[in-house]
Amino acid sequence: MDKPYFREIFTPMLENPIFVQGLPGFGNVGKIAVHLLIRFCGAKPFAELYAPYFPDYVSVDSGGVCRLPKYEFYAAPMEKNDFIIMTGDTQPSFEDVVAHYELCGDILDFVAKYGCNLVITMGGVPSSENTARVYVAATSPRLAVDFMEKGAVIYGKGRIVGATGLMLGMAKERGLEGICLLGATTGFRADRGAGFSVFKFLMKALGNEVKEGL
Q: What is the C-alpha to C-alpha distance for residues 115 and 21, in angstroms, rounded to an integer?
């Protein structure tokens, strides 16, 4: 393998889907939130992305079967919004800047085939307190204010590293709208509470009610 490649399982029928991304990162907030979304929507896996930029290991399941690290894409046709949801095992090394740019570009090209015009990334932001606060950054002042009015706090300074931030910036350069939702977390462990807060906020912002027992 000398370059990234997609393996498509089937072609979903979707109408102007929203692309939602959640990957491993600070407190694993994004990955937890996106798995809650997959479960909530009953989303089905339809494609995988493999790349030589991922770490040099394999994951082994309980039956002793190994597989390469990958990103997975799920399709969710819904009544209010269709989704393409992406998560994965890992990210490229933060030092490998070219890998991050190439993968984010390839992913945006891939979801564009399905008519995605809105990109939502989810992740964690360091906090000294355990709170349910959700921060927002966006590709335009209008979107930032819109989500602030729905209950998020503007993330007004600092950086958003990795694919969580870069995907948003590259989407903007392509003329796409984008939102990044960041859950406050101490980051010392996988923070299911922060992940649920981000997921619940996203669903509320898009007009879906979520029960606490999910």
A: 16
